[in-house]
Specification:
Length: 368
Protein backbone atom coordinates (compact mmCIF):
# COMPACT_ATOMS: atom_id res chain seq x y z
CA UNK A 1 0.00 0.00 0.00
CA UNK A 2 1.33 3.45 -0.94
CA UNK A 3 2.27 5.69 1.96
CA UNK A 4 1.29 8.94 0.25
CA UNK A 5 -2.23 9.79 -0.83
CA UNK A 6 -2.71 10.21 -4.60
CA UNK A 7 -2.26 13.68 -6.01
CA UNK A 8 -5.05 15.39 -7.99
CA UNK A 9 -4.77 15.43 -11.76
CA UNK A 10 -2.63 18.29 -13.04
CA UNK A 11 -2.11 19.57 -16.56
CA UNK A 12 0.64 21.96 -17.59
CA UNK A 13 -0.95 25.36 -17.85
CA UNK A 14 -3.61 24.80 -15.18
CA UNK A 15 -4.28 28.05 -13.34
CA UNK A 16 -2.86 27.95 -9.82
CA UNK A 17 -4.87 29.41 -6.96
CA UNK A 18 -4.47 30.53 -3.37
CA UNK A 19 -6.54 28.59 -0.84
CA UNK A 20 -8.08 29.86 2.39
CA UNK A 21 -8.81 27.08 4.87
CA UNK A 22 -11.27 28.00 7.63
CA UNK A 23 -10.58 25.71 10.58
CA UNK A 24 -13.03 25.01 13.39
CA UNK A 25 -13.43 22.42 16.15
CA UNK A 26 -16.06 20.11 14.69
CA UNK A 27 -19.45 18.59 15.42
CA UNK A 28 -21.18 15.20 15.33
CA UNK A 29 -23.03 14.24 12.17
CA UNK A 30 -26.33 13.82 14.02
CA UNK A 31 -27.80 14.41 17.51
CA UNK A 32 -27.66 10.71 18.37
CA UNK A 33 -25.58 8.59 20.71
CA UNK A 34 -24.38 6.56 17.72
CA UNK A 35 -23.02 9.70 16.03
CA UNK A 36 -21.64 11.17 19.26
CA UNK A 37 -19.52 8.15 20.16
CA UNK A 38 -16.92 8.35 17.32
CA UNK A 39 -16.92 12.14 17.45
CA UNK A 40 -16.23 12.25 21.19
CA UNK A 41 -13.61 9.52 20.89
CA UNK A 42 -11.70 11.43 18.22
CA UNK A 43 -12.01 14.69 20.16
CA UNK A 44 -11.13 13.38 23.62
CA UNK A 45 -8.24 11.20 22.44
CA UNK A 46 -6.41 14.28 21.16
CA UNK A 47 -3.42 14.93 23.41
CA UNK A 48 -3.97 18.65 22.89
CA UNK A 49 -7.37 18.33 24.55
CA UNK A 50 -6.62 15.84 27.34
CA UNK A 51 -3.06 15.52 28.64
CA UNK A 52 -3.64 12.64 31.02
CA UNK A 53 -1.21 9.73 30.41
CA UNK A 54 -2.61 7.56 27.61
CA UNK A 55 -2.74 4.23 29.45
CA UNK A 56 -4.87 5.80 32.18
CA UNK A 57 -6.99 7.98 29.91
CA UNK A 58 -7.74 5.20 27.42
CA UNK A 59 -9.40 3.17 30.17
CA UNK A 60 -11.36 6.14 31.56
CA UNK A 61 -12.53 7.22 28.11
CA UNK A 62 -13.53 3.84 26.70
CA UNK A 63 -14.87 2.19 29.84
CA UNK A 64 -16.63 5.13 31.48
CA UNK A 65 -17.04 8.29 29.41
CA UNK A 66 -17.98 6.71 26.07
CA UNK A 67 -20.43 4.44 27.87
CA UNK A 68 -22.28 7.27 29.59
CA UNK A 69 -21.67 10.57 27.83
CA UNK A 70 -22.83 9.98 24.21
CA UNK A 71 -26.49 9.52 25.22
CA UNK A 72 -26.47 12.55 27.51
CA UNK A 73 -24.69 14.72 24.95
CA UNK A 74 -27.07 13.59 22.21
CA UNK A 75 -30.03 14.73 24.29
CA UNK A 76 -28.46 18.17 24.64
CA UNK A 77 -27.60 18.39 20.93
CA UNK A 78 -31.21 17.52 20.09
CA UNK A 79 -32.36 20.65 21.93
CA UNK A 80 -30.33 22.98 19.68
CA UNK A 81 -30.13 21.03 16.40
CA UNK A 82 -31.28 23.06 13.40
CA UNK A 83 -33.27 21.84 10.42
CA UNK A 84 -30.14 22.21 8.27
CA UNK A 85 -27.96 20.39 10.79
CA UNK A 86 -25.59 21.21 13.63
CA UNK A 87 -25.63 24.95 14.47
CA UNK A 88 -21.84 25.20 14.38
CA UNK A 89 -21.64 23.55 10.97
CA UNK A 90 -24.54 25.57 9.53
CA UNK A 91 -23.01 28.87 10.61
CA UNK A 92 -19.48 27.86 9.58
CA UNK A 93 -20.69 26.89 6.10
CA UNK A 94 -22.47 30.23 5.77
CA UNK A 95 -19.32 32.04 6.88
CA UNK A 96 -17.32 30.14 4.26
CA UNK A 97 -19.71 31.11 1.49
CA UNK A 98 -19.93 34.75 2.56
CA UNK A 99 -16.17 35.11 2.96
CA UNK A 100 -15.76 33.72 -0.53
CA UNK A 101 -18.05 36.45 -1.84
CA UNK A 102 -16.47 39.26 0.17
CA UNK A 103 -12.95 38.30 -0.91
CA UNK A 104 -14.14 38.14 -4.50
CA UNK A 105 -14.97 41.83 -4.27
CA UNK A 106 -11.51 42.67 -2.95
CA UNK A 107 -9.11 40.64 -5.10
CA UNK A 108 -8.94 39.62 -8.75
CA UNK A 109 -6.46 36.76 -8.62
CA UNK A 110 -7.82 33.18 -8.34
CA UNK A 111 -8.56 31.81 -4.89
CA UNK A 112 -10.71 29.19 -3.16
CA UNK A 113 -12.20 28.96 0.34
CA UNK A 114 -13.00 25.70 2.13
CA UNK A 115 -14.05 24.65 5.63
CA UNK A 116 -12.28 21.95 7.64
CA UNK A 117 -12.86 20.57 11.14
CA UNK A 118 -10.34 19.20 13.61
CA UNK A 119 -12.83 16.47 14.54
CA UNK A 120 -15.76 15.07 12.58
CA UNK A 121 -16.87 16.26 9.16
CA UNK A 122 -15.93 17.99 6.95
CA UNK A 123 -12.49 16.81 7.98
CA UNK A 124 -9.35 18.86 7.60
CA UNK A 125 -8.07 16.29 5.13
CA UNK A 126 -11.15 16.62 2.91
CA UNK A 127 -10.89 20.41 2.95
CA UNK A 128 -7.21 20.41 1.96
CA UNK A 129 -7.87 17.84 -0.75
CA UNK A 130 -10.64 20.06 -2.14
CA UNK A 131 -8.26 23.01 -2.23
CA UNK A 132 -5.56 20.96 -3.95
CA UNK A 133 -8.10 19.66 -6.48
CA UNK A 134 -8.72 23.33 -7.37
CA UNK A 135 -4.96 23.70 -7.97
CA UNK A 136 -4.22 25.66 -4.80
CA UNK A 137 -0.46 25.60 -4.32
CA UNK A 138 -0.60 28.06 -1.43
CA UNK A 139 -2.94 27.76 1.56
CA UNK A 140 -3.70 30.19 4.38
CA UNK A 141 -4.97 28.37 7.48
CA UNK A 142 -7.49 30.61 9.27
CA UNK A 143 -8.52 29.07 12.63
CA UNK A 144 -11.86 30.42 13.80
CA UNK A 145 -10.49 30.88 17.32
CA UNK A 146 -9.70 34.54 18.09
CA UNK A 147 -7.71 33.63 21.21
CA UNK A 148 -4.86 31.16 20.77
CA UNK A 149 -4.96 27.99 22.88
CA UNK A 150 -3.01 24.80 22.48
CA UNK A 151 -6.24 22.82 22.86
CA UNK A 152 -8.01 24.66 20.02
CA UNK A 153 -5.79 26.59 17.60
CA UNK A 154 -2.80 24.26 17.90
CA UNK A 155 -5.08 21.23 17.62
CA UNK A 156 -6.46 22.52 14.32
CA UNK A 157 -2.92 23.08 13.04
CA UNK A 158 -1.99 19.54 14.12
CA UNK A 159 -4.84 18.27 11.94
CA UNK A 160 -3.40 20.23 9.02
CA UNK A 161 0.13 18.90 9.55
CA UNK A 162 -1.12 15.32 9.85
CA UNK A 163 -2.81 15.69 6.47
CA UNK A 164 0.31 17.17 4.87
CA UNK A 165 2.41 14.26 6.16
CA UNK A 166 0.56 12.04 3.70
CA UNK A 167 0.96 14.37 0.72
CA UNK A 168 3.74 14.10 -1.82
CA UNK A 169 3.29 17.63 -3.20
CA UNK A 170 2.91 19.83 -0.12
CA UNK A 171 1.51 23.34 -0.72
CA UNK A 172 3.02 26.46 0.79
CA UNK A 173 1.35 27.12 4.15
CA UNK A 174 0.68 30.26 6.14
CA UNK A 175 -1.15 30.22 9.46
CA UNK A 176 -3.02 32.81 11.50
CA UNK A 177 -2.16 32.31 15.15
CA UNK A 178 -4.64 34.69 16.78
CA UNK A 179 -6.57 37.94 16.37
CA UNK A 180 -7.87 38.46 19.90
CA UNK A 181 -6.99 42.16 19.80
CA UNK A 182 -7.55 42.89 16.12
CA UNK A 183 -9.55 46.12 15.75
CA UNK A 184 -11.90 44.60 13.16
CA UNK A 185 -12.71 41.65 15.43
CA UNK A 186 -13.28 43.88 18.47
CA UNK A 187 -15.46 46.18 16.37
CA UNK A 188 -17.50 43.22 15.11
CA UNK A 189 -18.18 42.14 18.69
CA UNK A 190 -19.09 45.69 19.75
CA UNK A 191 -21.39 46.13 16.76
CA UNK A 192 -23.17 42.85 17.49
CA UNK A 193 -23.69 43.68 21.15
CA UNK A 194 -24.83 47.25 20.48
CA UNK A 195 -27.39 46.00 17.95
CA UNK A 196 -28.72 43.58 20.55
CA UNK A 197 -28.95 46.37 23.12
CA UNK A 198 -30.72 48.69 20.68
CA UNK A 199 -33.52 46.14 20.48
CA UNK A 200 -33.53 44.74 24.03
CA UNK A 201 -32.10 47.53 26.16
CA UNK A 202 -28.95 47.32 28.29
CA UNK A 203 -28.25 45.12 31.32
CA UNK A 204 -26.83 45.99 34.72
CA UNK A 205 -23.84 43.80 33.92
CA UNK A 206 -22.35 42.17 30.84
CA UNK A 207 -20.71 38.81 31.47
CA UNK A 208 -18.08 37.81 28.92
CA UNK A 209 -17.73 34.06 29.06
CA UNK A 210 -14.78 32.28 27.43
CA UNK A 211 -14.24 28.56 27.08
CA UNK A 212 -12.22 27.28 30.02
CA UNK A 213 -9.01 25.27 30.01
CA UNK A 214 -7.14 23.60 32.89
CA UNK A 215 -5.12 26.07 34.94
CA UNK A 216 -1.89 24.12 34.38
CA UNK A 217 -2.06 25.09 30.69
CA UNK A 218 -1.50 28.69 31.77
CA UNK A 219 1.23 27.75 34.23
CA UNK A 220 3.08 25.84 31.49
CA UNK A 221 3.05 28.70 28.98
CA UNK A 222 -0.30 28.76 27.17
CA UNK A 223 -1.21 32.41 26.50
CA UNK A 224 -4.97 31.80 26.25
CA UNK A 225 -5.88 33.28 29.64
CA UNK A 226 -4.08 36.55 28.92
CA UNK A 227 -5.60 36.88 25.45
CA UNK A 228 -9.13 36.37 26.80
CA UNK A 229 -8.61 39.16 29.32
CA UNK A 230 -7.21 41.47 26.65
CA UNK A 231 -10.21 40.81 24.42
CA UNK A 232 -12.50 41.54 27.36
CA UNK A 233 -10.74 44.79 28.19
CA UNK A 234 -10.74 46.03 24.61
CA UNK A 235 -14.37 45.06 24.11
CA UNK A 236 -15.41 46.86 27.29
CA UNK A 237 -13.58 49.97 26.09
CA UNK A 238 -15.30 49.76 22.70
CA UNK A 239 -18.67 49.51 24.45
CA UNK A 240 -17.87 52.33 26.89
CA UNK A 241 -18.30 50.10 29.95
CA UNK A 242 -16.89 50.88 33.37
CA UNK A 243 -15.06 48.19 35.35
CA UNK A 244 -18.16 47.37 37.41
CA UNK A 245 -20.37 46.98 34.33
CA UNK A 246 -18.72 43.84 32.96
CA UNK A 247 -17.15 40.65 34.21
CA UNK A 248 -15.02 37.93 32.61
CA UNK A 249 -15.64 34.26 33.40
CA UNK A 250 -14.77 30.81 32.04
CA UNK A 251 -17.22 28.06 31.11
CA UNK A 252 -17.30 24.34 30.24
CA UNK A 253 -15.20 22.96 33.08
CA UNK A 254 -14.60 19.21 32.79
CA UNK A 255 -13.19 16.90 35.46
CA UNK A 256 -12.03 17.65 39.00
CA UNK A 257 -8.79 19.53 38.38
CA UNK A 258 -8.63 23.30 38.72
CA UNK A 259 -9.50 25.28 35.59
CA UNK A 260 -9.23 28.97 34.78
CA UNK A 261 -11.27 31.07 37.18
CA UNK A 262 -13.71 32.56 37.87
CA UNK A 263 -15.99 29.73 36.80
CA UNK A 264 -19.08 30.92 34.96
CA UNK A 265 -21.46 28.80 37.04
CA UNK A 266 -20.11 30.28 40.29
CA UNK A 267 -20.26 33.77 38.79
CA UNK A 268 -23.90 33.36 37.79
CA UNK A 269 -24.77 31.99 41.22
CA UNK A 270 -23.17 34.98 42.91
CA UNK A 271 -24.84 37.51 40.60
CA UNK A 272 -28.19 35.83 41.18
CA UNK A 273 -27.74 35.96 44.94
CA UNK A 274 -26.97 39.67 44.63
CA UNK A 275 -30.45 40.06 43.10
CA UNK A 276 -29.10 41.64 39.94
CA UNK A 277 -32.12 42.70 37.90
CA UNK A 278 -30.62 41.84 34.52
CA UNK A 279 -27.44 40.40 33.07
CA UNK A 280 -26.45 39.69 29.48
CA UNK A 281 -23.95 36.95 28.64
CA UNK A 282 -21.80 36.97 25.49
CA UNK A 283 -19.16 34.44 24.36
CA UNK A 284 -16.51 36.43 22.44
CA UNK A 285 -14.35 33.37 21.74
CA UNK A 286 -17.01 31.57 19.70
CA UNK A 287 -17.31 32.62 16.06
CA UNK A 288 -20.42 30.43 15.68
CA UNK A 289 -23.18 29.42 18.02
CA UNK A 290 -22.96 25.78 19.03
CA UNK A 291 -23.96 23.37 21.78
CA UNK A 292 -21.92 25.22 24.38
CA UNK A 293 -23.45 28.62 23.68
CA UNK A 294 -27.02 27.58 22.91
CA UNK A 295 -27.46 24.94 25.61
CA UNK A 296 -24.85 25.55 28.30
CA UNK A 297 -24.98 29.35 28.25
CA UNK A 298 -28.45 30.27 26.95
CA UNK A 299 -30.30 27.49 28.82
CA UNK A 300 -28.26 26.18 31.76
CA UNK A 301 -26.80 29.61 32.52
CA UNK A 302 -30.23 31.17 32.70
CA UNK A 303 -31.43 28.46 35.08
CA UNK A 304 -28.44 28.92 37.40
CA UNK A 305 -28.82 32.70 37.51
CA UNK A 306 -32.57 32.81 38.03
CA UNK A 307 -32.73 29.87 40.46
CA UNK A 308 -30.36 31.85 42.70
CA UNK A 309 -32.60 34.91 42.75
CA UNK A 310 -31.47 36.72 39.62
CA UNK A 311 -33.79 38.62 37.34
CA UNK A 312 -33.79 38.98 33.57
CA UNK A 313 -31.20 36.94 31.65
CA UNK A 314 -30.18 37.30 28.01
CA UNK A 315 -27.70 35.40 25.89
CA UNK A 316 -26.27 37.56 23.09
CA UNK A 317 -25.75 35.38 19.98
CA UNK A 318 -22.28 34.68 18.59
CA UNK A 319 -21.04 36.61 15.56
CA UNK A 320 -22.27 33.90 13.17
CA UNK A 321 -22.99 35.43 9.73
CA UNK A 322 -23.18 39.07 10.85
CA UNK A 323 -21.94 41.54 8.26
CA UNK A 324 -19.46 43.06 10.70
CA UNK A 325 -17.89 39.66 11.37
CA UNK A 326 -17.60 38.67 7.70
CA UNK A 327 -16.03 42.06 7.07
CA UNK A 328 -13.59 41.41 9.93
CA UNK A 329 -12.76 37.95 8.56
CA UNK A 330 -12.10 39.52 5.16
CA UNK A 331 -9.80 42.14 6.67
CA UNK A 332 -7.85 39.59 8.71
CA UNK A 333 -7.53 37.23 5.75
CA UNK A 334 -6.31 39.95 3.38
CA UNK A 335 -3.65 41.09 5.85
CA UNK A 336 -2.30 37.54 5.94
CA UNK A 337 -2.58 37.01 2.19
CA UNK A 338 -0.29 39.89 1.26
CA UNK A 339 2.00 38.92 -1.60
CA UNK A 340 -0.17 35.92 -2.47
CA UNK A 341 -3.20 37.69 -3.97
CA UNK A 342 -3.54 40.71 -6.22
CA UNK A 343 -6.03 43.32 -7.34
CA UNK A 344 -4.02 43.81 -10.52
CA UNK A 345 -4.36 40.24 -11.78
CA UNK A 346 -5.31 40.09 -15.46
CA UNK A 347 -7.28 37.04 -16.60
CA UNK A 348 -6.38 37.41 -20.28
CA UNK A 349 -2.68 37.69 -19.50
CA UNK A 350 -2.90 34.69 -17.17
CA UNK A 351 -4.58 32.59 -19.84
CA UNK A 352 -1.85 33.46 -22.30
CA UNK A 353 0.83 32.47 -19.79
CA UNK A 354 -1.01 29.17 -19.25
CA UNK A 355 -1.08 28.48 -22.99
CA UNK A 356 2.62 29.27 -23.31
CA UNK A 357 3.42 27.00 -20.37
CA UNK A 358 1.44 24.13 -21.89
CA UNK A 359 3.13 24.63 -25.26
CA UNK A 360 6.62 24.60 -23.75
CA UNK A 361 5.83 21.47 -21.74
CA UNK A 362 4.50 19.73 -24.84
CA UNK A 363 7.61 20.67 -26.78
CA UNK A 364 9.70 19.05 -24.06
CA UNK A 365 7.72 15.83 -24.38
CA UNK A 366 5.12 16.22 -21.65
CA UNK A 367 1.94 14.18 -22.26
CA UNK A 368 -0.32 16.92 -20.93
Amino acid sequence: MAYYNPEPEYKHGDQLKVGILLANLGTPDAPTAKALCPYLKQFLMDRRVVEIPRFIWWWILNCIILVIRPKKSAEKYAQVWMQEGSPLLVHAKNQTQLLRGYLGQKINSPFAVELGMSYGNPSMQSAIEKLKAQHCNKILVFPLYPQYAASSTAASLDAVWKTLLKMRNVPAIRTIKHYHDHPAYIQALATSINKFWQINGKPEKLVMSFHGVPKFHLMKGDMYHCECHKTGRLLAEALGLDQDQFQIAFQSRFGKQEWLKPYLASTLEALGQQKIKRIDVVCPGFSSDCLETLEEIAMEGKHIFQSNGGGEYHYIPALNESEAWIHAMTTIALENLQGWVSTEWDNNAAQQVAKDTAARAKALGAKQ
